[in-house]
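#struct-pred

JT: dropping the chains for the assembly here, can someone run the whole complex?
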Amino acid sequence: MKFDDALEINSALAIYAHPDDNEWNSGGTIASWVRQGVEVNLVLVTNGASGSSDPDMTREKLKEIRMVEQRQAADVLGVKEVVTLGFEDGYLYPDLELRKAVAREIRRFRPDVVLTHSTERVMADFYANHPDHIAVGEVVLRSINPDASSGLMFTELWKEEGFEPFLPNAVFIGTFGFGPVFTDITETVDQKIEALKHHRSQIESPDEIETFVRERFKQIAQDQPYEYSESFHILRTNVV
Ligand SMILES: [Zn+2]
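RK: done, full complex below.
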């Protein structure tokens, strides 16, 4: 699939902190890419065990529920493989263990592009970005330079495990707001909504989710020649 004159996408790897982050940030874009023949895989960094205020819920129970929900949501979008790294939800820090784990997956999948979180602390004027998101966004950028791309970083990944250094051509960083790059999700917004509804442990009302998604992602597309949009900042590594 030709994204633009400078970027061809045949495979993509989404790397996000929690179950449902993929669907919120890039569900419509991914569904659209899958329809155009792109292979998309998902790396889920945490176990999602903090995502509940139900007093009867436990971390052990919730992480099992959320993994099932994530697989169902991924199926709606056409995501092929979901890899769960199993770090504790809410306790993520961009340390060496996390850096190596993410670098391993980028070297394993060797995607044309990676999709991930923004490292911005305040987003779209109303959202205090979750620290786990910031940690994952930071670690993905560290993978671009140098963790996944340099042969002299984590040498054990190729010497002992066979995962050779790899540099994706671009990183799509979700801005959850207004650009600077927009993707047309008009054809796939229904899949995005259906996928989000599979995260039943995270939503009180499926109808409210649908209304919110339609309003929000239509607003993001307000200056575009189509109805619904997701938005990204694209880091291109293949232009220098
Ligand atoms: Zn999240």
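JT: nice. DSSP finds seven helices and eleven strands in the chain. Residues 2-236 form a domain with the Rossmann fold fold (CATH 3.40.50.10320).
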